[in-house]
Amino acid sequence: MDLSIIIPCYCSGNNIVKVVEEINNTMKSTSLSYEIIMVNDGSPDNTFEIIADITKKYKNTYAVDLAKNCGQHSAIMAGFNYAKGEYISTCEDDGQADVTVIPALIGKLKEGYDVAAPIYKQRGERSLFRKLGTKCATAMGKWMIPRPHGIMVPIFFAAKRFVIKEIIKYNQPFPYIEGLILRSTYNIALVEAEQKERIEGKSGYNFKKLFALWLNGFTSFSIKPLRLSSFVGIICAFIGFLFGVITVIRKLINPSIVAGYSSTISILLFIGGLIMLMLGVIGEYVGRIYLCINQTPQFVVRQTTYKNNKKCRDGEDLFENNH
User: Fold this and answer.
1) Where are the beta strands (DSSP E) in 233-305?
2) For the chain, what is the HEC assignment?
3) Sign of torsion, CA 279 280 282 287?
4) Left if phi > 0, otherwise alpha if psi is -120 to 50, otherwise beta: which for 80?
5) What is the mean pLDDT of the chain?
6) pLDDT for the residue numbered 313
7) In sequence order, what are the beta bridge partners of 116?
8) What pLDDT, in 10s, does the model give residues 54-72?
9) Paired strand residues for 77
10) What is the 8-class DSSP label of residue 95?
11) How, if at all, do strands 3-9 and 87-90 pair?
12) Which residue has the higher pLDDT, 64 or 270?
């Protein structure tokens, strides 16, 4: 098998059929043998029934049904555990990914790159909230995770098998795909592409899910927030010391000055708020350590269209899955 394409699906019943058709039309122009693995991320609608019907229509397609919604990144990790291809690609379920660049991505891998990803010169129309969210996630990624200059890896990318094999060694409950890629390799190629408009529906990412995704990036692959907490603490301590010295000097110069109650309360509230914020950051790390020790799973597979509900078919070498 040359290529495995992983598609995480959430409430995408009306979109996924067109996405699969577009992938099949694109791959017809290549000599690559391929499979499409669709992972239903606990959709509350009939998405699994639809992708299961697709597997009956196309023999090279397979469906995996997760028992609950685990998030896009966990769904992709689930798909990685079923992939058989020498190359593995991901694809979004909303039709925005330009799947026609998949052969170009694979071409870059054959040239010697470990990972290939599209760089969008033009993006589809998005809401102000999503634009802001993307900018925040991009800024966070650049600051938090070491990377080559100008490299950003979106959800839609292609990688060699050894990279994915290294990625799925991460068995903790908070996967962050870009961080997992960048801790495996910096040998990444970019291919110009155009992000299309969503076929229909709206993004499954709300503020809560985007915030949780940012936290994954913050706490799973960097201790910079903790270092920032220490730095802010030092700055605040210095400001407090400086303010105290100024207060003493003013009192010595003019003994009639009365200490201000309002300014004292304001300072206490400011320092107290900073302390609580820093404790919250530390608590987030400690809480995630606790969940990791408890071996909270990334995902739980309810059923698949694979024979006997196995992660692999008899005689074929697939990734080992410990979930």
Assistant:
1) 301-304
2) CCEEEEEEECCCHHHHHHHHHHHHHHHCCCCCCEEEEEEECCCCCCHHHHHHHHHHHCCCEEEEEECCCCCHHHHHHHHHCCCCCCEEEECCCCCCCCHHHHHHHHHHHHHCCCEEEEEEEECCCCCHHHHHHHHHHHHHHHHHCCCCCCCCCCCCCEEEHHHHHHHCCCCCCCCCHHHHHHCCCCCEEEEEEECCCCCCCCCCCCHHHHHHHHHHHHHHCCCHHHHHHHHHHHHHHHHHHHHHHHHHHHHHHCCCCCCCHHHHHHHHHHHHHHHHHHHHHHHHHHHHHHHHHCCCCCCCEEEECCHHHCCCCCCCCCCCCCC
3) positive
4) alpha
5) 80
6) 38
7) 158, 189
8) 999 998 999 999 999 888 8
9) none
10) S
11) parallel
12) 64
Task: Tell me the per-residue pLDDT of 74-123, one tens digit each, with 9 for 90 and over.
Answer: 999 999 999 999 999 999 988 888 899 999 999 999 999 999 999 877 65
The model's pLDDT over 170-219, given as tens digits with 9 standing for 90+, comes to 888 888 888 889 889 999 999 988 876 665 655 555 556 666 666 666 66
Lookup: tokens for 135? 């900018």
**Dist. CA 82–CA 174, nearest whole Å:** 19
pLDDT band at residue 13 using 50, 70 and 90 as cut-offs: confident
